[in-house]
Amino acid sequence: MNSEEQRARWDLKYEEGLPSLTEPDPFFISAYEKFVDPSFPNAGEALDLAGGLGRHALWLASRGWPVAVVDLSDVAIGKLSQAALELNVRLELLVGDASQYKFEPARFDLIVLFYHLDRSLFPKIVSALKPGGLLLGKMSLWWDSDGRLTTTANPLLRNELPSLISDLHVLHHHERPVRDRGVVEFVGKK
């Protein structure tokens, strides 16, 4: 599926409404409390890659974090812009494919990556973290328990993620089965 087809698919999903993508993920909240808040008690600068409707970006911005959000969907960014106005928070919003984002070296204290997998992004993500910066994420994983394919094309293999972020110190890495796939939850520190 090319970029335009992906954009149209996501625009349609966001137009129809995805209520499950408006509240922060429970793992995000627990990882924030355990790893992010102790490291950055006065907040820092964050990037939410493929941030969708901004469930994590809005949560961070409401706690004083300047947040940049990149997403492919014009619809998602439009809805996120409106939500930010209603909550009276500022976000840097960018419509575009995460792979085309211009990562600045050592810019971010926190990068959030949920359910978007592009293996080529990991070196760029690592370079964009400041020393001591954190990568917090969750994504689909191949869980070969019964031989069925997962819902995600080309998902991570079990225990693959640490090799993709080998320049980070892994603070948390947990893999588990969920329905027809697996998920991996992780926190890495530069």
* CATH top-level class: Alpha Beta
Distance separating the two termini: 33 Å
- The portion of residues forming beta strands comes to 25-35%
Major sheet, described briefly? 7 strands, mixed
Q: Regions with pLDDT < 50 over 5+ consecutive residues?
A: none
Which homologous superfamily in CATH is the superfamily?
A: Vaccinia Virus protein VP39
With strands numbered from the N-terminus, the spatial order across the biggest sheet is: 3-2-1-4-5-7-6
Q: What quaternary form is this?
A: single chain
Structural class: alpha/beta
What is the overall number of helices?
Answer: 6
Describe this structure in words.
The chain has six helices and seven strands; from the N terminus they run ααβαβαββαβαββ. It is an alpha/beta fold and 190 residues long. It has a single domain, classed as Vaccinia Virus protein VP39 (Rossmann fold), CATH 3.40.50. It has a seven-stranded mixed beta sheet with strand order 3-2-1-4-5-7-6. β4 (108-114), α5 and β5 (129-141) form a beta-alpha-beta unit. It is globular. The termini are far apart. The model has no long low-confidence stretch (mean pLDDT 90).
Structure summary:
The longest helix is centred in the N-terminal third of the chain and has 14 residues, at 3-16.
Give the topology, please:
Elements (H helix, E strand, L loop, with lengths): L2 H14 L9 H14 L6 E4 L5 H7 L5 E5 L2 H14 L3 E5 L12 E7 L6 H8 E13 L19 H4 L4 E10 L2 E9 L1
Parallel strand pairs: 1-2, 1-4, 2-3, 4-5
Antiparallel strand pairs: 5-7, 6-7
